[in-house]
User: Fold these one by one.
Assistant:
Number 1:
Amino acid sequence: MSTEQEQRQVTTNNQARTQEQLHDASLIEQLPDNSQRLHPDSIKVSRITVALVSFIIMLLPTIVALLSETYLIIAIGVTAGLIVFTIGFIWAKKSYDYTWYWLADEGLYIQRGVWWRKKTLVPFNRVQHTDVAQGPLDRKYKLGKLVTHTAGTRDASVSLEGILLETAHELRSVLQEEGESDAV
């Protein structure tokens, strides 16, 4: 191969690599070193919730069908419940895979989204107050939800579900301390 052909090959390879990088490059996919995932038990909580909702979706038409003796409704209800369960079961893991959070100098970042990705910043100086909440399943798995209320109207409250309760309290303390130190 001549030098000119080698240069063309290198140029072609570089262009292909650049096109790949442009295609794959997204600010939202570039995570800092201190980014953290939700707790893995959040997948279980989501799947149990989906199972309960699916059961109710199957149960209600069954009761109606038994009372009205229209048994086609049972098939429709069971089918709808199984569809909801299947989609929800898969979605719980996908949602976990695409949810990250991290603290930066300016505040708490939360990145989420399977299809439509969104990166939210909760600036320390905009935090009004924070809440930590738990549902019954969260308590069983020692998980919690951090809700941060900010000054402003758009996305005035931002929640982060599926983290350990202890982590939620730690994040709450950091947000409150940093928010107070940034106060005017």
Number 2:
Amino acid sequence: KLIAELEGRTVTVRGQPVTLRELGNASVVSVPMSFKQEFINVLADPNIALLLGLGAMLGLGIELYHPGGILPGVFGAICLILSLVAGQVLPISYGGLALLALGAALFVVELFMPAFGIWGAAGVVCFVLGSIYLVDSDMIWAVGDFGVNEALVGSIAGVVGGLLLLVSFLAIRAQRRRVTTGKEGLVGKSALTKTAFARREPSGEMRGRVEVMGELWHARFADGGEAPEVGERLTVKALEAGMTLVVTRNASGDEQ
């Protein structure tokens, strides 16, 4: 088909115009591509170029989030260079490239400033739109639908979106989880009475010692009525200044 379209065209050979005629009788000689040409031909696939860009974003993002890994940074740098080489061959749309860059920036923001997936969701939208408009097929010699495969874009967007949902779920669950360390971690714990509580004058407070999580603490009994007996289970209500626990019978604490 190409030879038929060349019929009658004028080309310049050694500075002289030459009209191509009777090409139907011409013999076709196949010239194999060199290794370099084959390599560039692979990079010229829009899907490969997109995957290289994602690899660069992933590798460099991991290196920024966990500095010192070396391997992710090297992998990301190699993918970045190869994606730039592919960009020299492909008719890249600057609008699509800008959307991909914005999506990558939003993913980084989500890593360092978690917003329960809001930044990440916006990044996924930018990624999908940028992938669709990444290659301008009207500017290239290829025929038909030349661009990033929609199935590939959907698969990557689905995986990234699923990971963002998982991270958001874990972040929300971690925020709702009760603190189990430090001062706040003692509140609600079960306290075992180790010494008899006695009323101290002139304050009239009942004080004694209790065991919480294997440690002995000075404690003040906050309820009125009879003093706790040795061996009785109480519940830590608060921690006062001076490392004194406030205990009560009002709730059942965690079993130790």
Number 3:
Amino acid sequence: MGKIKFAIACISPDLKPAEVRDDQDFENLKWFISRRLAIRIYVVNKHLCTLLATYRRLMEQFGHLFARHEPQKTIDVITLTETCLDSIDEALAFMNKSELNLLQDEWRLTIDSLNETLASFVKFDNWTPPRSPDPADTARRSMGEDPREDEPTPESLLGQPHLHPAMSHCRISVIAAVKLSRLFVAQLLKISQDTENFQMVPDLSTRELEKFRTMTSTIATSMKNVVSNLSEEPDEARDGIWKQ
């Protein structure tokens, strides 16, 4: 296993994508691919070492008949074996993917991230600040009266503004920006799947491939930061924006 790690380090050195400009003719040995494959091989290596170490320990403690005397240990070994096989299958599936397939995977992750961002903002948009207790209501309760008798009905609240106008415009803009970003990435993914009319240039370097990847991931990160900054305001600032 040590030799495997050493070999991986040799074919996938610790470089920055922007520095790898001249591997366009390396095909499957491009750093863009080998780095990602290395991560999966490391995972396989970890699971395999855990499986072998566990099996050796059980053999030393219980001998070849440990399955008969320790059935739970057998289940543990089977679970570790399945985990190891799953990681191997994932690595093999990765080896069969093209550069375009890898970019498409990244675009799908970007769409998922934008969906989560949109859901997070909608949840924030529907949030209503808790109502502060009215001193008059407190006094009426102390006198045995029911303060709910004078509360407005749901019908009387219809039509009342919930958001400050500036916040309302901001809300519309943010939702539109996230949806347009998602539409752009979704269309990019759809076009790339039309193999009859779309073909990817095969001689792109790692630096160029990384630009394709970061182009969409940066959009998702930016949208997430915008929503995060809007929805994580201090209570004092939030109370000034949101209106009862």
Number 4:
Amino acid sequence: MAILTNSRSAAHRADGEWHRNTQSGRINDVVKLTLRERETAQEAVRRFRKLVERSGIKKEMRVREFYEKPSETKRRARLRAQRRSRRERMLTSR
């Protein structure tokens, strides 16, 4: 049995797979989970949830839930960079 869902980030694990389209460099948006021998449904669901979490699907869904103007995206990125640099300065000044 295999479970498929959409994904945006690329990676590869032994217990699940993410596929990358080599021509365009884009991800084929598939997370694949194959049941292991003697694996219960609960264990498979737990593994599937971890795969989805690691692939970044949930994070992207949250980001894309509502339209964000490009200026707002840039503003959020700028503020995030400011916080990061402030944190780094605090750590290096100690």
